[in-house]
Amino acid sequence: MARNRENNVDEEQSVKRGSKGKIIILALLFVLLAAGFGVGGTYIANKYFLNKSSEKSTETQATITSNEKLVSVSKFVVNLSGNTSTDNLTYVRLKISCLVADDDAKTSLKKSMPLVRNSVINVLNTKTANDLLNTSNSISTLKNDIKNEINTEYGTTIVKQVYITDLVIQ
């Protein structure tokens, strides 16, 4: 009888150990399957669904040739138009860099920095906060307006492109 009890206890312990082992094996199997599906899904998404051609086209648009130079213009803090009450004034802080053709144009633009600053202030004074924030191409329009105003005031096309390096509207 004592032997029967010992055998029953041994069988119960082996059953408990066996069920714990099965749970551990199932958990490991689940983790491995989840990792496999994650890696496989990422591979398939990268290979078939992501459009890499659009990434390449944006990289090629921002190239600057070795002859072209950037001229940094110090920060502007300007009142925007639209609000005439002193309680609701809207300000813009802007820092730009201008792309010019070569070293001679860079030197010439640096000598004409008051003209450049005046042109930027004239453009910003005509804008409202909504003009700068509401449309998806408003920043592109602002850059183009600044470039055109500088070139008009200068009398020739000296600025090829305007880059906005800092923009805060408050």
Automatic annotation (TrEMBL):
<dbReference type="GO" id="GO:0006935">
    <property type="term" value="P:chemotaxis"/>
</dbReference>
<dbReference type="GO" id="GO:0009425">
    <property type="term" value="C:bacterial-type flagellum basal body"/>
</dbReference>
<keyword id="KW-0282">Flagellum</keyword>
<dbReference type="GO" id="GO:0005886">
    <property type="term" value="C:plasma membrane"/>
</dbReference>
<feature type="transmembrane region" description="Helical">
    <location>
        <begin position="23"/>
        <end position="45"/>
    </location>
</feature>
<keyword id="KW-0966">Cell projection</keyword>
<comment type="function">
    <text>Controls the rotational direction of flagella during chemotaxis.</text>
</comment>
<dbReference type="InterPro" id="IPR005503">
    <property type="entry name" value="FliL"/>
</dbReference>
<keyword id="KW-0472">Membrane</keyword>
<keyword id="KW-0283">Flagellar rotation</keyword>
<protein>
    <recommendedName>
        <fullName>Flagellar protein FliL</fullName>
    </recommendedName>
</protein>
<keyword id="KW-1003">Cell membrane</keyword>
<keyword id="KW-0812">Transmembrane</keyword>
<comment type="similarity">
    <text>Belongs to the FliL family.</text>
</comment>
<keyword id="KW-0969">Cilium</keyword>
<dbReference type="Pfam" id="PF03748">
    <property type="entry name" value="FliL"/>
</dbReference>
<dbReference type="GO" id="GO:0071978">
    <property type="term" value="P:bacterial-type flagellum-dependent swarming motility"/>
</dbReference>
<keyword id="KW-0145">Chemotaxis</keyword>
<keyword id="KW-1133">Transmembrane helix</keyword>
